[in-house]
Design goal:
The chain has a five-stranded mixed sheet, covered by helices on one side. The chain is elongated. It has six helices and five strands, in the order ααβαββββααα. By secondary structure, it is α+β, with helices and mostly antiparallel strands. The structure holds zinc ion. The site of zinc ion has 8 residues, from loops.
Length: about 180
């Protein structure tokens, strides 16, 4: 992963640089997301584990700039994608989940000052500086479905009745996410 993704800067510095960051890495670079995936896969028999899942490519682009002419509203826009393995909540096999995130964020500042024709979500900053890597990683974690399942019934073998019971009792991502939120 690019150092630009790992270094801490203020949003204003990033925006002023007009930096465009090409994202080309692997799932293993995203430590929090990898940890969530690893914990989820722990329930699988080891012979079902996809080998080298940490090598799954992460690709995308982030560009920084300002939303307003006065350079008071730093923004980031772009997209990032990675495919992660997960335990299917119906058949308890492995299902590959493609996570694709579009970002269009105001990095702090007052959204009321943003130009009317622009639509940004506000990204709350806990500190004065941010690591772009943390931002895209958090966005990917938010994109994980609460109950991952196979889309194709031919692949997913679990009878429906059992599936419902399983979905009720096993929601590991939901649990992990709420744990992470409490830790923050
Ligand atoms: Zn399944």
């Amino acid at each position: 992963m690019d150092n630009l993704l790992r270094d801490r800067h203020t949003p204003a510095e990033l925006a002023a640089s007009g930096q465009v960051i090409e994202i080309a890495g692997k799932l293993g670079d995203l430590e929090q997301l990898s940890e969530i995936v690893r914990k989820d896969l722990e329930t699988l028999n080891t012979d079902k584990l996809p080998p080298d899942w940490r090598e799954s490519p992460v690709a995308g682009q982030l560009s920084f700039g300002f939303a307003d002419a006065q350079d008071g509203l730093p923004t980031v826009a772009g997209q990032v994608g990675v495919t992660v393995p997960a335990t299917c909540q119906r058949c308890l096999g492995v299902v590959e989940i493609p996570l694709e995130v579009e970002l269009r964020l105001l990095l702090g500042g007052d959204v009321a000052n943003a130009a009317d024709d622009e639509h940004y979500d506000i990204w709350e900053l806990d500190e004065d500086t941010l690591r772009p890597l943390d931002l895209l990683e958090e966005a990917l974690i938010m994109a994980i479905p609460l109950a991952p399942m196979h889309v194709d019934d031919a692949v997913c073998k679990q009878p429906a009745a059992i599936a419902e019971a399983v979905t009720e009792t096993r929601r590991p991502f939901a649990k992990l996410k709420s744990q992470m939120e409490q830790e923050d």
